[in-house]
Design a protein that fits this description.
33% of the residues are buried. The chain contains six helices and ten strands, in the order αββββαβαβαβαβββα. It has a single domain (57-225), classed as Glutaredoxin, CATH 3.40.30. 41% of the residues lie in helices and 20% in strands.
C-alpha cells in the first residue's frame, strides 16, 4: 500500500501583536528621522558662516486684525524674522498644501523661542472673519508663533504688490465657481527684523524646509552680529 505524500506545512498565521509592534517601531523611527533631519538642517546652518542674503524690498507699515481680535502691526515684528504668505480659507486650489507647509515651518522654527514667526494674510477679508480664521488655524494646529491676519482689501493688495512684490487679484466672475474668489501667489517671503524681504520660496514644494531653515539661520546670525 502506498502511503500518502507528507503535506508541507503552510505559512503560519501572522502574529497581530508582533505586526502592530513592528509598524509602531517603523512609525517611531520615521518621526525620529524627520526630527533629526530638521535638527541637522539647523546645526549645519549654525556651523557655517552666514551668507549675506539680498534685499528684494521693504514692507510698508500695516495694521491688520489677528484671529484673536487684536491688531498687529509691522512695528510688532521689529527685530523678529518672519515668513509670510497669502491665502484664503475657502480656497480649494493650492491653499491647503500651502497652509500645510506653513504648519511645518511654524513647528520647525518653534525652537527659536519667538525670534521667528509665521504670518498668513488672507486675500478674502470679507469672508475670513476672526472667528473663521480661528477655526482655520485650529485645523492646522497653529500656535502663538503663527499669525493669521486680515485687513481692508485695498490695504492687502497694497502690501502684497508694493511690499512683497507678489501678485494678487480677484478672479474673473466666470472662474469663481471653479477656482474661488481670488488669485494669489503661492510664494513665501522671508522677512528680516527691519521689514526687508530677503528671500522667496515656492510655498508648495516638498523640500521647503530644506530651503528655508538655512536662510533663517543666516538671518539669525546676521542679526546677532549687528547688535
Amino acid at each position: 500500500m502506498t502511503l500518502p505524500a507528507p503535506v508541507a506545512p503552510g505559512p503560519r498565521p501572522a502574529n497581530r501583536n508582533l505586526t502592530a509592534a513592528v509598524w509602531a517601531l517603523l512609525v517611531a523611527g520615521l518621526i525620529v528621522v524627520i526630527a533629526a533631519g530638521v535638527r541637522e538642517l539647523w546645526i549645519s546652518s549654525e556651523r557655517q558662516e552666514y551668507q549675506d542674503l539680498p534685499v528684494y524690498g521693504q514692507i510698508p507699515p500695516f495694521r491688520f486684525l489677528e484671529r484673536d481680535g487684536q491688531f498687529r502691526t509691522l512695528q510688532d515684528l521689529q527685530g523678529q524674522i518672519w515668513l509670510a504668505g497669502f491665502f484664503f480659507t475657502t480656497c480649494t486650489g493650492p491653499c491647503p498644501v500651502l497652509s500645510s507647509r506653513m504648519a511645518d515651518l511654524a513647528q520647525s522654527v518653534g525652537r527659536t523661542k519667538g525670534r521667528v514667526k509665521i504670518v498668513s494674510i488672507t486675500v478674502d477679508p470679507e469672508t475670513d472673519t476672526p472667528e473663521r480664521l480661528q477655526a482655520y488655524a485650529k485645523k492646522y494646529g497653529a500656535g502663538t508663533n503663527w499669525w493669521f491676519l486680515s485687513g481692508p482689501l485695498p490695504e492687502v493688495f497694497r502690501i502684497a504688490r508694493e511690499g512683497f512684490k507678489l501678485a494678487v487679484e480677484p478672479n474673473p466672475p466666470e472662474a469663481v465657481a471653479l477656482n474661488g474668489k481670488m488669485l494669489h501667489s503661492t510664494k513665501i517671503a522671508l522677512v528680516d527684523g527691519r521689514g526687508q524681504v530677503r528671500a522667496y520660496y515656492n510655498g508648495t514644494e516638498e523640500d521647503l524646509l530644506a530651503r528655508v531653515l538655512p536662510d533663517v539661520g543666516n538671518l539669525l546670525r546676521e542679526a546677532g552680529e549687528k547688535r
